[in-house]
Sequence to fold (228 residues):
Amino acid sequence: MILFFAAVSSYAQDTIVFRNGDEVQAKILEVSDTEMKYYLWDNLNGPVYKKNISDIFMVKYSSGYKEVYDKVKNDSYNKSYIPSLRENNVMTRNRSYLGINGKQLTDEDLRFLLTPDEYKTFMSARNQRKFGVAGFCAGLGVCVIGGVIMANNPTGGIICLIAGEIITDIGLPFVFIGNGRMNWVVRNYNARVNGETVSMTFHPSLISSPNIAGSNSYCYGLGMTLSF
Fold:
């Protein structure tokens, strides 16, 4: 009987996850558009606590249902379709765009759905990928021009081919790094909304380190991210 009631008690509690990373075992009493009221699980006869919804990231109910709250940043923003996005929490990437349930997300959507770190990473990675694609295409164009003029001007053609290859080689790493960072955002979001508290991912990254002259030097490498 003791084991039975202990199992029932452990299952009946709700878990509130705050945006600062804190977790509270509680019994939720009431949830409004702006506020949540609850008892602490280890003091059900104690005071009623109140927290703003904007401070809460996610609630794991005793039934197993999980609800992720969007932090409101702009009251005029129409987010009426956000609940429908929660019905399918799997985020996907199509080149430089993210989507959920077949809907391509706008930058404003991403501000609501992603954490500040995820949003900043995605915007930076998207610009990296665009820069890399532009450089790669420009390099191919220069190579084509070099091939066309090779017959009449071998020297100029060779110069164009070398320049085009250099531009292409510069652009490709930016494409790979941008893709890797955007994929990290997608994996991190999907793990976060599905309650996976620990994850490890590997991705290409740009590593910065100080050199002898006192300035920073950069090189491409493989990054490892541990989220918990």
Q: What stands out?
A: Residues 72-80 have pLDDT under 50 and may be disordered. The longest strand covers residues 199-210.
